[in-house]
From TrEMBL:
The keyword Transmembrane helix applies. One of its GO terms (cellular component) is Golgi membrane. This is Jg8158 protein. The chain crosses the membrane at residues 90-113, 168-185, 192-209, 229-249, 269-290, 296-315, 322-342, 348-367. Its main location: membrane. It is a multi-pass membrane protein. It holds the Pfam family Nuc_sug_transp. GO terms for molecular function: pyrimidine nucleotide-sugar transmembrane transporter activity. Residues 14-23 have a biased composition (Basic and acidic residues). Residues 1-23 are annotated as: Disordered. Belongs to the nucleotide-sugar transporter family. SLC35A subfamily. Keywords: Membrane, Sugar transport, Transmembrane, Transmembrane helix, Transport. The gene is jg8158. It is found in: Membrane.
């Protein structure tokens, strides 16, 4: 016969099992209620008209800015190459850099005033940030000087490399930026990002080993003395300067709450004196600043000044994948346009290198989706479903 203790033990076990079943049923009921509530919540949110309108609004800004960035990237490389190979009186690239900085300063001053609400507040903000906080302004002089040198080197590169090769080579700035991010900001790159950098180097190497442009020097005196080695060296130096200056400027931005437009005001104010000094050293005088400037050169200056501002909008509203897409499309446009404008010869080796570079841009900007986290309630629900 069973003892009273055995009977009580069995009763308690049976009672515990019933309680466990009730808890599971209750958990399932609560879970289903939560799901229904979320469905109703989602349905009610979908019924609200202002949310879709808002997403459409920002979506339009995002894609319009990306389209403009794509056109600007492609047009800048092609325009710089064309401007440096025309059979006309040549303008000084150092002068173009100075004028572009002046134009950028004017645009950023207008944007700061717009942020401040009126002219008086804008002027007061700029005076406080630039003059009274002189130590912070001096910190910005480092990237200002570097950007002036970089922009001049890009003109040297565009004068010696065809537009397609120039466009592909300049993507090495991804490699140098990653290098300085690891060195200065102590960032850790993912495995696929290291792979993307290796793919980038291989792609650029293939591009430069391939044949590029027909001998068109007979039609333009400005192509007689071009050197592919000089062009590649200038582009490589510009990439290193761009990488370091970008990381330094990012560090400065993160250490303060000053707006991007105000920082660009500081950059331009410091860049203009550096640019004038560079021009005087290069040409020996300041009086011929506008020598060789015609309508096309002014268009090029505006295009160059607008580039940084367009990137700022894209960074705000888009992501790395879409930005990489814009860069990739710009490279393709440059290659196709070079065939018709500069008698460019597209080889299999060049095409393969370009594909490697485009692939590296997407791979580097790839962000894997985070795995879904399961709560204890969801785990219990899946467990009970398996039991049934």
């Amino acid at each position: 016969m069973k003892s009273i203790d055995d009977i009580n033990l069995q009763d308690s076990q049976a009672t515990r099992e019933e309680i466990d079943k009730e808890e599971i049923v209750t958990a399932e009921t609560n879970l289903q209620s939560d799901i229904n509530a979320e469905d109703m919540d989602g349905a009610s949110k979908k019924s609200q008209t202002y949310i879709p309108n808002k997403s459409v609004k920002y979506g339009n800004i995002k894609y319009v800015s990306l389209a403009i960035l794509t056109i600007q990237n492609a047009a800048l490389g092609l325009s710089m190459r064309y401007a440096r190979t025309r059979d006309v009186e040549m303008f000084a690239s150092t002068a173009a850099v100075v004028i572009a900085e002046v134009l950028k300063l004017v645009i950023c001053v207008v944007l700061v005033i717009n942020e401040s609400g009126n002219i008086q507040n804008g002027v007061q903000t700029m005076y406080t940030t630039v003059i009274l906080n002189i130590k912070d302004t001096l910190r910005v002089c480092v990237p200002s000087f570097l950007y002036v040198i970089q922009n001049n080197l890009l003109y040297v590169s565009a004068s010696n490399l065809d537009a397609a090769t120039y466009q592909v080579t300049y993507q090495l700035k991804l490699l140098t930026t990653a290098f300085f991010a690891v060195l200065v900001l102590k960032r850790r790159l993912k495995k696929w990002q290291w792979g993307a950098l290796g793919l980038l180097v291989a792609g650029v190497a293939l591009v430069h080993l391939s044949s590029t442009e027909k001998a068109k020097s007979a039609t333009s005196d400005n192509l007689h003395n071009q050197s592919k080695l000089l062009g590649f060296g200038a582009a490589l130096a510009a990439c290193f300067i761009s990488g370091f200056a970008g990381i330094y400027f990012e560090k400065v931005l993160k250490e303060s709450d000053i707006s991007v437009w105000m920082r660009n005001v500081q950059l331009s104010l410091a860049s203009i004196p550096f640019g004038i000094i560079t021009h005087v050293i290069s040409s020996g005088t300041i009086t011929d600043l506008f020598k060789g400037f015609d309508g096309f050169v002014w268009y090029l200056v505006v295009l160059q000044a607008a580039g940084g501002l367009i990137v700022a909008v894209v960074v705000k509203y888009a992501d790395n994948i879409l930005k990489g897409f814009a860069t990739s499309v710009a490279i393709i446009i440059s290659c196709i346009a070079s065939i018709y404008i500069f008698d460019f010869h597209l080889t299999v080796q060049f095409a393969a290198g370009t594909v490697f570079v485009i692939g590296s841009i997407f791979l580097y900007g790839y962000v894997p989706k985070k795995p879904e986290t399961r709560t204890s309630l969801s785990v219990m629900w899946y467990w009970t479903q398996d039991e049934k």
